[in-house]
Design brief:
The chain crosses the membrane at residues 44-71, 77-100. This protein is an alpha+beta fold. It has helices at 41-71, 75-90, 92-109, 133-150; strands at residues 3-6, 10-13, 16-19, 22-25, 29-39, 112-120, 123-130.
């Protein structure tokens, strides 16, 4: 028996697909397809918030420099305001790696609910629903490979 995918809730082998305790024999599956749900505005808003968090200190630094020049104060005050603005802008550095990591994870998870469906014993059955795009892709490819390898080879007919 070959295992194509295995985690806590999904196992795909050369004979069965097990999802959340339900087992489907590959010999009973005749077709596999997937569906994508609508976009999650919550996920998109989260990505926007991360972008704003990345841009915020830089905008504050530029505004601070603009204010320092606009005020026409003494050189000491102007240098202090510009220096503080630059320090605020530099604050992006250590935080940027953390924020970019969260942004990358957001894209890996995706912004839609994804479903895997199968025709099992002649009836459509939803095997899996997840918002994690990376996991969905791994499971979907594993099910496809398992179904392809479980079907007997058909003889090639030439005309």
């Amino acid at each position: 028996m070959t295992t194509y995918y295995d985690d806590r809730s999904v196992q795909v082998t050369s004979t069965t697909v097990r999802v959340d305790g339900r087992t489907y024999a590959l010999s009973d599956i005749s077709m596999i397809w997937h569906r994508r749900g609508t976009r999650s505005w919550r996920v998109l808003a989260g990505r926007g918030a991360i972008g704003a968090a990345l841009a915020g200190p830089l905008v504050a630094a530029v505004l601070g420099i603009g204010v320092a020049v606009w005020l026409h104060r003494s050189p000491t005050v102007t240098i202090a305001i510009v220096g503080a603005s630059v320090l605020v802008g530099l604050a992006v550095g250590p935080v940027a790696d953390f924020l970019f990591e969260h942004l990358d994870r957001s894209y890996a998870r995706g912004s839609r609910q994804l479903e895997i469906w199968a025709r099992w014993r002649g009836q459509p059955v939803r095997l899996l629903r997840t918002g994690d795009a990376l996991r969905f892709g791994q499971i979907y490819r594993a099910v496809q490979r398992a179904v392809e390898h479980s079907q007997p080879a058909r003889p090639v007919t030439r005309r």
